[in-house]
Specification:
By secondary structure, the chain is an all-alpha fold. The protein has one domain. It is about 60% helix and about 0% strand. The protein is globular and about 50 Å long. It catalyses: alpha-ribazole + adenosylcob(III)inamide-GDP = adenosylcob(III)alamin + GMP + H(+); alpha-ribazole 5'-phosphate + adenosylcob(III)inamide-GDP = adenosylcob(III)alamin 5'-phosphate + GMP + H(+). This is Adenosylcobinamide-GDP ribazoletransferase. Its cofactor is Mg(2+).
């Protein structure tokens, strides 16, 4: 598995029936802390068992907390975008720097997953060959083109969004980052097997009820809608259609993630950590594009 999985060979196991492992008891804090540890560079310690096993249900809980981590990353990126443009930096340059910041803050896991998924889908042959290509670690032509397009679109959309005012910028970036991570819960929903053993994909495959991702989408769209119509410089407000841009962006992200999950499940025989990263980047990009267009 490629670098889209955080240290896949060292992921703490979740003990299965008959494994003989003794896991720590369930803990409310284990899921959020594990989400921060897995999905960002922020150090967060999760109490493990004597054999290094995670608390019961921690991995599944971490995926459900991922959109909250996304909100934090989005707010940080939005603040950076506002700060750079206030200093006179070109909006396009500021947008590129925010994209770079998000990559650094997440160890590049999600863009690596997007690249590996693009190469896997662009290959021919059985699932085993596609998975070998994805695990190779190199970047083929499909990966390069996909990264240029997706990251370039993100930067351009951020540049266009930068003039919307502080509250819409912060809300828009938070909505985009959180929506992308809500896609994790759909990719790893119950009934979906891991494409291969080991790594993050095998740890969380089939762990999420099917309603979790749609619920997150509704909550995020409803919460962001009033913030996206906040007054901008000069006291005017956005056109009323901007209030619906949150719902449109989330809906477009959902269509892309559902399509990606279905196609990769057929192509690879299941889901992997790389597909999680690809879903995150596509969902985030979809929301940013819609919000930028609503400007």
């Amino acid at each position: 598995m490629g670098p889209a999985d955080p240290d896949p060979d060292r992921l703490p196991p979740e003990p299965g029936p008959g494994s003989g492992a003794t896991a720590p008891a369930r803990s409310f804090t284990a899921g959020p802390l594990l989400a921060v540890s897995w999905l960002t560079v922020v150090p967060a310690r999760v109490r493990t068992g004597p054999d290094g096993s995670l608390p019961v249900g921690a991995a599944a809980s971490a995926l459900r907390w991922a959109p909250v981590v996304g909100i934090g990353l989005g707010l940080a990126g939005g603040g950076l975008l506002l700060g750079l443009t206030a200093l006179g930096v070109s909006p396009v340059v500021a947008g590129l720097l925010v994209v770079g910041f998000w990559a650094l803050a997440t160890r590049g896991m999600h863009i690596d997953g997007l690249a590996d998924t693009a190469d896997g889908l662009g290959s021919y042959g059985p699932p085993e060959r596609a998975l070998r290509i994805m695990a190779d670690g190199g970047a083929g032509p499909f990966a390069v083109v996909t990264l240029i397009v997706v990251l370039g679109v993100q930067a351009g959309a951020l540049a266009q969004l930068a003039a919307a005012g502080p509250v819409p910028v912060l809300a828009g970036c938070a909505l985009a980052a959180a929506t992308g991570r809500a896609g994790f819960c759909w990719v790893a929903r119950r009934g979906v097997a891991a494409a291969r053993p080991g790594g993050l994909g095998a740890t969380v495959a089939g762990s999420q009820p099917a309603w979790v991702a749609p619920l997150w989408g509704v909550v995020l769209a409803v919460a962001a809608a009033p913030l996206l119509t906040a007054p901008i410089t000069g006291g005017s407000t956005h056109h009323v259609t901007t209030a619906f841009s949150a719902s449109v962006g989330v809906a477009l992200a959902a269509v892309l993630v559902v399509g990606l999950a279905a196609h990769t499940r057929r192509r690879f025989g299941g889901m992997s950590g790389d597909v999680l990263g690809a879903a995150c980047e596509l969902g985030c990009t979809a929301v940013l594009v819609v919000l930028a267009a609503a400007r």
